[in-house]
Amino acid sequence: MNRRDLLKLFGGSLVVMQSPQLLISSANATSYSKTEQPLFIWVMLRGALDSLHTVIPEFDENYIKHRPKLAKQLGTGLPLEKGFSLNPALAELHSWYQNSELLPIVAVGSGYHGRSHFDGQDFLESGQSKVNSNAIDTHSGWLGRTLQMSAYHHKAIAIDQTVPISLRGSDDVNAWYPSNAKDVGDDIYSALMNMYQDSPKLSMSLQKGLELQKNAMAQQSGKQRTKFANLTKACANLLLADNKLSCAVLELGGWDTHNNQHGRLARQLKELDDGLASLKAQLGERWQHTVVAVATEFGRTVKENGTGGSDHGSAACMLLAGGAIKGGRILGDWPGLAKSELFEGRDLMPTSNSLQWLATVLAQHWQIKPAHMPALFGGLQTYSEQLV
User: Which of 24-28, 114-118, 196-200, 348-352 is predicted with the least confidence, judged by mean pLDDT?
Assistant: First the structure.
């Protein structure tokens, strides 16, 4: 290997470290200029969020019987309708609810009835496996397939180190995530551009990577930890910088609360609340045309365990938010918390399907034809409820 080849290899490594991961990009994206194009942002909460500690059924007389310690620690939540309340850590989301920009849906399940985090996440993200199938196809996801079928030609960005399952199946997906490596100077990038001048493919990849990095970190300065709020701000910057980009995916882990749940969830929910507030603030007027969907792979046991936590369960809650959402209400049928009303005698019973709610909101937000929905969501149809 001569010196020039070594420099090319070294330079290529720098691009990978310092620039966003540019994974897949189509040159055939339809060009349009729309300040009111509908944005859709999918937030995956990994680890199985406890819905009873998030959208709290204070009206259910069995709630406090199952959770005497957790209910006492939690106290009175922020009031919603039908006797539900919201965890006090979600103060920003509660203000959205009051402004009809938040729509909680209770007792939802994806159709997965196991208790494995990984299988549950794959099942929810793929959106194509049947309930009794042991084989979960991860080659494409419901959002990636939907991107191809929308009335608009959407491009998507994953704020992640890889393209998540939910976005697979589309040719117009990029991935970006901030690097922890020390940034290099402009002279290095300039030298790389000169080096790549005879290679249009490398040159274009470097240029796109630099533009993505610049757009993501706009209005941010100094070294910042990768907090969720920083990621949502970068996500908003990317959406604003590219008028062909109308879809984004984020994720937030840390919801597996087998012990000391109250304090841990308070911190987690506050981080989620802060992050979504940052997203809204950065989007500005575009927020009015935005839908944010937040969901987790499954819920947790109704009864608290002996270490102040809860274990893997079934039904959970999901949140739809955004300026485009008809919020300020609770959806989903409440199954009850009596022993006879629980799934397998221990979990909140699912009464509606989270994938069908996603299909419904996307069909309305992106004008997907009803005939296409079964192919996009594993045979599932949409609900009749008007969500946007």
Answer: 24-28
pLDDT tens by residue, 42-94: 999 999 999 999 999 999 999 999 999 999 999 999 999 999 999 999 999 99
Distance CA 93, CA 36 (A): 23
Indicate the pLDDT class of residue 202, thresholds 50, 70 and 90: confident
Q: What is the largest CA-CA distance in the chain?
A: 76
Name the average pLDDT for the chain: 85
Banded model confidence at residue 6, pLDDT cuts 50, 70, 90: very low
Residue tagged 């909101």 (tokens): 361
Percent of the chain scoring above 70 in pLDDT: 77
Q: Which two tokens stand for residue 370?
A: 């009803």
What are the Cα distances from residue 271, in Å, to 6, 93, 330?
43, 12, 23
| Contacts of 106 by beta carbon, 8 Å cutoff, 6+ apart | 51, 55, 57, 84, 317, 330, 331, 332, 334
Type of residue at 77: G
pTM of the full predicted structure? 0.84
SS3 54: coil
CA-to-CA dists, residue 256 to 46, 89, 310, angstroms: 8, 17, 9
State the number of CA atoms in the 13 A half-sphere of 273 facing the CB.
Answer: 19
221 contact partners, CB below 8 Å, separation of at least 6: none
* Letter string b/e over residues 109-134, b meaning 16 or more CB atoms within 10 A of that residue's CB: bbbbbebebebbbbbbbbbbbeeeee
CA separation (Å) from 211 to 47, 126, 214, 241? 33, 30, 5, 9
| Pair 248, 166: CB distance under 8 Å | no
* Distance separating alpha carbons of residues 45 and 348, to the nearest angstrom: 18
